[in-house]
Task: inverse folding
């Protein structure tokens, strides 16, 4: 996965920034929005942001087992 890919154009948020927020403890869309601003302007990226949060949270949980 390209962590430099921009997911939220309005706030210039990358996949890597979402991963960093999940690694720092964010686990919901709302927490990611608060940490990064992703999905807080036009909302066009919300589905992508949700998918990434779920993906990175699952990845983090599997590493912690």
Result:
């Amino acid at each position: 996965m390209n962590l430099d890919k921009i997911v939220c154009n309005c706030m210039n948020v990358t996949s890597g920034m979402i991963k960093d927020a999940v690694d720092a403890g964010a686990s919901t869309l709302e927490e990611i929005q608060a940490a990064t601003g992703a999905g807080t302007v036009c909302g066009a990226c919300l589905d992508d942001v949700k998918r990434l949060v779920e993906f990175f949270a699952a990845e983090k949980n599997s590493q912690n087992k």
Notes: Strands lie at 6-8, 13-14. The chain has three helices and two strands.
